[in-house]
Amino acid sequence: MSQKTFKHVLQSAGLKTLAVVAALGLGFGAPQTMAQTKQVIRISTAAVPDDWHAKMWTVFKDTLEKSAPGEFDVQIHLNAALFKQGTEPAAMARGNLEMAPISAQDISKIVPEFSIFTAGYIIRDPDHQQKVFNGPIGAEVFKPVIQKMEVTPLATAYLGTRQVMLREDKNVKTPADLKGVKLRMPASKEWLFLGEALGATPTPLAFGEVYLALKTGTIDGQDNPLPSTRAAKFYEVSKTVVMTDHLVDAIFLSMASKTFNAMTPAQQQKVKAAAQAAAKYNNENRIKDEAAIVDEFKAKGMKIVKPDVDAFRKAVQDKYLNSDYAKIWPKGLLERINAVK
Ligand code: KDO
Q1: Could you give the number of structural domains in the chain?
Q2: pTM value > 0.70
Q3: Whose CA is nearest to atom 10 of ligand 1?
Q4: Residue 186 belongs to a domain
Q5: 287 assigned to some structural domain
Q6: Phi and psi angles of residue 154, each rounded to the nearest 5 degrees, phi first
Q7: What is the pLDDT of residues 210-268, one digit of tens each?
Q8: For ligand 1, is residue 157 a contact (CB within 6 Å)?
Q9: Which of 94, 103, 152, 182 has an alpha carbon within 20 to 30 A of 45's alpha carbon?
């Protein structure tokens, strides 16, 4: 549009249009002091609102808006409402999403050697997990994630220790007792392999569909950390919890590298600090909760089974160590993970 026609439009459209045009920064000689546009950070997670790893995103938002007032617009989307569970890394790489928690199983699809963290009975407890991922091993294993996935992990949150939950009353002592049990696992081959290693018949399903599947009997059970099981109310449609402790699970609060790399170093530091504050809030609450939920479930009339965890550990570890997954684990990494105290 020439300057002449532009002026003409303004004259005929009146002052209101002028104000809008100026506010949008389209006017000639628009004032330089105009408010900077905020960087939008859309977050997508499958977490349900009551879960700590859903609430932690509010901590992220509050912390960031306090440390960098007016610079960011953090938008939280729960219940996989924005992106389907497991599709978040691709959405971030394509530039359609700025942040998401991603799992070791998500990462393994692109960085196969990361599958070491999908194996049961490797990470011992939440403290071991934090030391592994926040130390030299973390720095090393996140490098190919940044290079190959175009996402930048900023903090490691403890998702909890996964237990098996069954819709029927059943006594499970060893993996043999799970034979033929249709155990729901998240939908990827890395997750299904874990279900198989536990002795069950794994069935892929998104988290959001688990409640109904338990209720109708499409599946016989599912595995999840107890706080998530409570937040999603799976106890309403289950009778038995088998305390297998089979996976000390993590999610990595990650940002699209395109977004992260476009920020100033000061902004990057604030975003990282906010992600770490969120993970800390989640970890503290979740650890406290995990200890108390067993009694809560007992009080609700659920059967809590203490299986032969050594039998599960041996079966799961043997299955992984003899699999193709283990063949590509970096030499010596397992020993180094075990040596972290
Ligand atoms: C699940 O689907 O079982 C799982 O626990 C897998 C995790 O990686 C994570 O996606 C989690 O669901 C969701 O955040 C819902 O709690």
Answers
A1: 1
A2: yes
A3: 46
A4: no
A5: yes
A6: -115, -25
A7: 999 999 999 999 999 999 999 999 999 999 999 999 999 999 999 999 999 999 999 99
A8: no
A9: 182
